[in-house]
Amino acid sequence: MRRSDQRPEVKAPPRWRFPDPARLWLDNGMELMACHREGQHVAAVSLVFDVPLNVEGVDIEGVATITQRCLDEGTRTHPGTAFAERLEDIGAVLGGSAGYAGSELSLEVPADRLGESLALLAEAVREPELAADDVARHRTLRLAEIEQAMANSAHRAAIGFRSAVIGGRYRASRMPGGEARTVAAVTTEDVVAFHGRHYRPDAATLIISGDLTGQEFGQAATAFGDWANPAEGYFSHEVPQGVAPRCLLIDRPGAVQADVRLGSFGIDRGDPRWADLQVATHALGGAFLSRLNKVLREEKGFTYGAHLVNSPMRDGGLIAVQGSFRTEVVPEAVGLARGLLDLSSRPITGPEVAAAVSYTNGVAPLRYSTAQGITDRISALVRDGVNVEFVNANFQALTLVTPESATQSILELLPPDRLTLVVVGDAAALEAPLAADGWPVEVVSAP
Q1: 229: number of CA atoms within 13 Å, CB side?
Q2: How far is 446 from 95, CA to CA, in rounded Å?
Q3: Which of 95, 348, 371, 385 could form a disulfide with 210 if both were Cys (CB 3.0 to 4.6 A apart)?
Q4: What does the pLDDT look like over 194-214, one tens digit per residue?
Q5: Which of 430, 440, 438, 434 is nearest to 153 (CA)?
Q6: What strands lie across the sheet with 31-36, from one edge to the other?
Q7: pLDDT at 6
Q8: Contact yes or no for 268/384 (Cβ under 8 A)
Q9: How far apart are CA 369 and CA 103, in angstroms?
């Protein structure tokens, strides 16, 4: 048989779509969503509560985090360690977090034990013990986390950048888990009151993904259907605003490298420029050979990696160049980064747009190939008040991005003369060079 010298034709992959979940509302106002994913025998469950952090008292910020972390420490039906032992018996793993837009409990469990796990999840949110010893332990652990975060330059830079670009009157300008002073003030009574007021069915959305049998809504209704909370009150989400640009130098005496954040307050997924910004940030700092990494790492050798990160919130967002640099090169690196963000003379090109769109849409089937990936994505959208249909609409919007629209998004959102700079490093070595480059340096002592 004669072999052909011609290569086989490679056809374009079929269009992929994010799954549309089945939906149901219980009589108590709780919303249920389910996505069947054949072959995914470990179900991924998320219970999202529409409880923004701006409902915390200003003197006890962090109470939402401590409340969420205490939920799996025991229930009235399974007190103390009996609750964790019951989860272990069915192979379930329970976790969660409290973020700016809402709190969440996440659960992974073999699909054939889903009904049992939903009953336990209902126990955790309906009848937690919230014992004083558990509150005290989680308060101590959170205080240790804060101390560790402040000792880590990268974390300190992220915290500093958030506070530098968002007005201080907004909860979003501070750490989601609270700061040392406010966490230390949280009492057991505060935790019990927060749970009693804010963990309610009409503020909850249950998301289930996996190899489902069609019994999931019935199981959820059995676990949660008779749940009621007599507390009243709807709390609106804050809409943070950015502030005037600053240059914040957080002093780490003797540090041989510095962590840098250079950027501004950004946009959320509802902004019409969202797809343009996604493409632009990928081209500038989202790929290994993006402009920032190519210059600052490959050509200059200043860093192991420089990225432009776009982090949306429910309203607004943060956009920042991120990287760690040797102390002596920080002023030059910052200058180069600011120059690379100035697209007025070097706009984004057609090939860069094509590469960004191809990558973003091309990795989606892999990113959402597991039940966990599907549930995590839906949970993030629910927390931020975005319809699930956004995912497919955004795929389409990306294909309409042009070099001109991508360039314009950066010119509008990251103008070189309106950037905030946060540096965590040796102020003695950095203050004068940064000031000489025109930055209005404010030196702050690291805690």
Answers
A1: 22
A2: 32
A3: 371
A4: 999 999 999 999 999 999 999
A5: 430
A6: 22-25, 31-36, 204-210, 42-49, 102-110, 93-99
A7: 75
A8: yes
A9: 25
